Amino acid sequence: AQRVTQPEKLLSVFKGAPVELKCNYSYSGSPELFWYVQYSRQRLQLLLRHISRESIKGFTADLNKGETSFHLKKPFAQEEDSAMYYCALSGRGGRGSTLGRLYFGRGTQLTVWP
Amino acid sequence: DTGVSQNPRHKITKRGQNVTFRCDPISEHNRLYWYRQTLGQGPEFLTYFQNEAQLEKSRLLSDRFSAERPKGSFSTLEIQRTEQGDSAMYLCASSPGGGRGTDTQYFGPGTRLTVL
Predict the structure, then answer these.
(1) pLDDT tens-digit profile of B37-78?
(2) For residue B44, which residues of chain A lie inside 8 Å, CB to CB?
(3) What b-and-e string marks burial along A78-110, b requiring 16 or more CB atoms within 10 Å of the CB?
């Protein structure tokens, strides 16, 4: 069965400290992994996706198929990083295209203290 | 604002009443999705459309729920005979759809439903 697990509901760090938000998944096929972020009073928005191998706002995430993990990391957290972070998974169909639905974890609320 | 829009933003209704929500996707996006989010949980998939065709429905979508996208543009989600358990944030998303590669979903602000 498809499942996305974010074990930490809440995570607090001080400004300048490293931060890692954990995400583990189970999926029988070939998954695509995403991190979505929701800042206070804003809509859910894409932060990054594994296939792009990019760094957004200093965040990176590496897909580890052996450990079925997609942890989100940032070496030096900033106060403006305080938000709710959701890990999400989608299947990949033929020709590498993304299938429809997203499976979300329950989210991790990150608070960065000054 | 050229993003996904949803109306109304808030809806309070009494148990047993019918409600309808509207979603306007990003222009020229072929795919449109509906999700439901309850407190402390991530969004849960309800259904999605490719143009006007409803391609997938979750088991969460009971007989009281119906979604349409008649002309392949905006979509409506109707809940009949609402129950208190229907209270949630209803999110709409759209994506370009089709073709190869990653298909990114863009979310609307949501409609918060409260059933009294």
Answers:
(1) 999 899 999 999 999 999 888 888 889 999 999 988 999 999
(2) 104
(3) eeebbbbbbbbbbbbeeeebbbbbbbbbbbbbb
